[in-house]
């Protein structure tokens, strides 16, 4: 076995390929083209459409901690809920300006993310998982108790959201809401995409792949995990605020375990750690839920449960993972 | 001789009643090629873990270039040039070889926390990583994920990762463990080619490698230093023959 | 003053009863975690199934309480062994996320199945006549069933501990939790050991679910709603520990009862807060190994 020194050409080509990985590909435009097309094709489903867009942002935030940093969480609804209540309470108490509402939601959720992350990220495995659950459950109890502000179990009523930039009024057909969600999602996606492609994002992948080695190369692992946790919380908060502003209502269900659990389901259907899993899994799940769940919630749970077991056993990596494997196989042949 | 690389003074580690490291006084001179040998369970890996900060000593002191580093966390020791490799390959398996090394350089240069610019913009780090791959003969696998590499090649990446951190003291934990003989030659040569300024301490079972590379050898038995000397002295020492070399040649 | 004293006794009594149920259900989860490195979120589903089978046998076929409980435990053990061989064993020591998703899926399937079979209403738990009403313990009277529950729990816990201390199986479990690779090299059949431990843990959960049906009511969302309690007991106790979860169950059972007595409108808020504080001090749990 002799290792010939590769030519300078090879070196230049390798380095170029490596340092160009963050550039945009044509297929990254697809979700956005489809979203715009959907607006014209299904004008009667815009309310569902804007919900889907907001939840995709939520799923992206989960993908950031789960798929990239490897933090398994069953409590991300905590940040979604904090964002929803922040924007909701502002709008119900005389401040209905939507953009600043989003920002306030992001800041509030990031603060909760920092504080809780500082405590829970010291642990791993089952203990960490349990604590993510407990943080969400605590906020749920608080929201339930603070009915003077949150409306408790009845939900937060009387939100009044002002027109965007003082111009675009939220209409009853959901036209404004749809594009509002689409634009916010787009910016959120840019942030996530930029983060995972940055040196910081690559170091997160390193932490997920091998924590011990990251320590050994001198990385401040705890600090990195905390930063990404807070960033993800902020994005989840924005997603929650979007939902609140477009629905003009916040219920206690923004904070419950079901929300934390189903977002994981949506994400694994598409595929985690891939940035695009959310764009496939969320619409698929929510459209199916819209069609079938109302008719019989019992069966819905059954099929979702079965799908989860099936995906973990047979379809590792979700739809995206399967597509990647098929592509790799066809390339080999 | 003030520029001593690494020194341990009366280093002890107990797990309950078990003394895994017992009063170890050890000195690794700057630029040395020093081997640590001993039978299984002698506490060699524990010693590496104590020195690198994975474990906290029960008592004793650790000095790096004369400074007390006993209380420093692992990451801080790395920043001061104290770097290790792992006995069982510990790489970022799904990432490509180049990325593995780039990660190490990014942490060394403090750009690992940059979340604004794309990683590809840190061109100097990538160029430097590629240089290291070329020196280690790994360049042709630069863009292949670790999982596709033969084990011997993975051991080379293990060393490349450590080199990327510009160590002044390098601890190699069984660098040739599990590698077929045909490939271990490449690893021995790589170790011989390491820059002179780096003080190298390696733990090894492969006696051929030990006697070929080491200038000094320390023998560890049951957590304590049995003897230290040149390869010739160690080979001639009857105690060493008794506890180690005799049983070492299966 | 007498009132306060009486309240303390009452809280202690009901807290103890809750602790027994929590421990019986959670101990299996702790061992599966420590031994197989598996996060079994669906563990509570076995307790729930135990409760369903027992109440179903009692109300549908008039099976006596003791027999119905035994039948429920046997049923759950059978189901758990099948699941272990078919699904769980593939994921031992594997990816955390896979484990979480698979067992979450099992919870969903269980919820749907019990709703389909037994309907959405809470299953009635009617203790036999001999265990209903109040029992006078000299200084005051207590609900008979809960007294029975505490005594029963204490006997079961003692038996479990003795079994793990004295039997060959127990020695194997302890050795394997301590050092799995070592256990394998000295010739313990770990695959069979895992299956047996899993079955034992599920059986105990079913027992806890059945016995405790009066405290933790048998409803369709049982496995999801109580999940956080089971996880708290295991994490605070220390993963893989057998006695740790008992101390944690006592702590959780009694303090949760006390908090809900003092400030019922806050629900479980304080027990969650207590958990966070405890784990801040003891990230590996009270009896966790370092």
Describe what is shown at a glance:
Chain A is mainly α and 333 residues long. Chain A has helices at residues 8-19, 30-41, 46-68, 77-92, 98-120, 125-145, 147-150, 175-197, 199-209, 211-216, 221-247, 257-270, 277-293, 297-314, 318-332.
Low-pLDDT stretches of chain A are none
**Helical percentage of chain C:** over 70%
Largest interface: A-B, 42 and 52 residues
Provide the number of structural domains of chain C.
1
The count of strands of chain A amounts to 0
| Order of secondary-structure elements of chain C | HHHHEEHHHHHHHH
* Topology-level CATH name of chain C: ABC transporter involved in vitamin B12 uptake, BtuC
Report the radius of gyration of chain C as a whole number of Å. 19 Å
- Helix/strand class of chain C: mainly alpha
- The order of strands across the largest sheet of chain C is 1-2
- Number of β-strand runs of chain C: 2
Number of continuous helical runs of chain A: 15
Q: What's the level 1 CATH class of chain C? A: Mainly Alpha
Task: Describe the protein's architecture and organization.
The complex is a heterotrimer of chains A (333), B (250) and C (290). Chain A is mostly helical and 333 residues long. Chain A has helices at 8-19, 30-41, 46-68, 77-92, 98-120, 125-145, 147-150, 175-197, 199-209, 211-216, 221-247, 257-270, 277-293, 297-314, 318-332. In chain A, 73% of the residues lie in helices and 0% in strands. In chain A, helix 3 runs parallel beside helix 8 (175-197), helix 4 (77-92) packs parallel to helix 6 (125-145) and helix 9 (199-209) packs across helix 11 (221-247). Chain A is globular. Chain B has 250 residues and is of the alpha/beta class. Chain B has a single domain (33-45, 73-248), classed as 3-Layer(aba) Sandwich (Rossmann fold). Chain B is 36% helix and 24% strand. Chain B has helices at 44-52, 74-79, 97-109, 123-135, 151-163, 181-192, 207-213, 231-236, 238-248, and strands spanning 6-15, 18-28, 33-37, 59-64, 67-68, 82-84, 169-173, 199-203, 216-221, 224-229. In chain B, helix 5 (151-163) packs parallel to helix 6 (181-192). By secondary structure, chain C is mostly helical. A two-stranded antiparallel ribbon of chain C has the order 1-2. In chain C, helix 1 (2-36) packs across helix 10 (227-237). Chain C is globular and about 60 Å long. At the A-B interface, helix 1, helix 8, helix 9, helix 10 and helix 11 of A face helix 2, helix 3 and helix 4 of B.
